Amino acid sequence: MRALIGTGLGDSQVRSRLTIRLHALVERFFPERRLFLRSDSDTRFIRLRSETQAVGVVGLTLLVGWSIVATSILLMDSIGAGNFRDQAKRDQLTYQQRLNALSAERDARAAEALAAQDRFAAALKQISVMQTELLNSEAQRRELETGIDVIQATLREVMKSREEATARLAELESDLKGEVALARASGDDATVKLLNEALTRVAEERDQVIADAQAALIRAAEMQAEIEILEDKNDRIFRQLEEAMTVSVMPLDKMFEKAGMDPDRILNEVRKGYSGQGGPMTPLSFSTKGDATSPETLRANRILNQMDRLNLYRIAAQKAPFASPLKDSFRFTSGFGYRWGRLHAGTDFAAPHGTPIYSTADGVVIHAGWQSGYGRLVKIQHEFGIETRYAHMSKIRVKEGQRVSRGDRIGDMGNTGRSTGTHLHYEVRVGGKPVNPMIYIKAAKDVF
Hints:
Number of domains: 3
Strand content: 15-25%
Number of helices: 6
Largest sheet: 10 strands, antiparallel
Helix content: 55-70%
Mean pLDDT: 77
Distance between the termini: 116 Å
Low-confidence stretches: 1-8, 277-289
Number of strands: 14
Oligomer: single chain
Radius of gyration: 54 Å
């Protein structure tokens, strides 16, 4: 028991000594102070112990340190946020400039396409005029050839008649001269006079036959010269038509090939629906005698076949989605392809709310209404197994079963369905499978 008491007293003494030393250390730095507060009637003082001063200084130090750290954090956050905002503004400005450049390029492409379409229409008109001239010229040349054949046949008959008449006139002239000599010898003046008159008539007939033959030869030469002029003119027209066909048909061949469509198969399908005969594209056939076709006719038929191909291309181009669904200014916001592991099956065009949307080809509306994530949706079935879709519309302007042509307005741009902003989601499907719509639009940019 005493040992325990002794141990307890020892610990108390140690603690007292530590307390005294600590107090002395604190008092060394923070000596005890007294603050006197004097008033008119009294004087008071406040005793500031060393421990109180130490606690106050430590608290004040901690408060100042915390204020400095908090201020630094806030300042760093502010600087960082400012940098991020500036960077975001710079990125937004760069993006806007890029969008403006793309918009300007798109407008330039649209103007070029419009000019190309005007040139294409002018070329078609010129080709039609040249075709008419060619047909008229060819018919005139055939008429001249027929006329020359008639003149040559007549000329042969005239030459034969002239030869016969010359021989007969020579015989008559010889006989008349003999008779004139006999009449003169016998002194019969009346007979001599009659024979001289007959001889004069025979000479005049001979001269007339020779003059007719000469005139026929001159006319034949003139007609041959006219035929040569017409042939030269036809050759120039043929060359111009062949060049025009090459310039017009080759871009269309490339357009369908770039779109992944076999031109021959497409034209055969169009030809099935337009199989009537007759008209300006019917092959020429000038001979009715079963003779071999002339080189000019073969050349003309080749051009007509090219014109027929051009006409079929024109029809096919109306039935395939080569046009743009928008005619006003817009910007591309999302292309065809995979996005976050999912296929984005079309192309997005952004423009103001209510921007008109147009059919990109001739076809029949097979859906016009609401469909889950598409919102207000129009589906159009075209030829060649092609279907187009126009989604997120604010207003639909066609009905199911309605037949539309390329360029017909079918609705207005909106933000319906699963959409983060006003835009048009445009799809092209071939055989039910989605393909990139820009394949068709880009393939036609140098043609239409």
